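User: Reviewer 2 asked us to show a designed sequence for the structure in our supplementary figure. I'm pasting the structure tokens here. Could you produce the per-position amino acids so we can include them in the response letter?
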């Protein structure tokens, strides 16, 4: 199945891209995506406990099952002032 992954803020900077299409086996979860991304930059795992995840514009957990053509957004913590 094909899933679009969107990178925001610090993740965009970390990976030098705003989005990526990933080919995953049926039955994959958000965590499978995170592990694929972590293999590219191990420090990405430092954000697991503080990042937000959305699947098709709705907040989701790392255990959320994915289906073909889903859009997964990886949202780091945001600060401002």
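Assistant: Here is a per-position design you can include in the supplement:
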């Amino acid at each position: 199945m094909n899933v679009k992954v969107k990178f925001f803020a610090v993740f965009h900077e970390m990976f030098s891209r705003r989005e990526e299409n990933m080919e995953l086996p049926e039955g994959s979860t958000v965590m499978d995506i995170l592990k694929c991304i972590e293999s590219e930059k191990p420090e990405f795992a430092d954000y697991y406990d503080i990042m937000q995840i959305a699947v098709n514009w709705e907040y989701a957990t790392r255990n959320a099952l994915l289906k073909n053509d889903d859009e997964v957004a990886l949202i780091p913590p945001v600060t401002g002032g």
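For the response letter, you might also mention the following. The first helix runs from residue 10 to 15. The chain has a mean pLDDT of 95.
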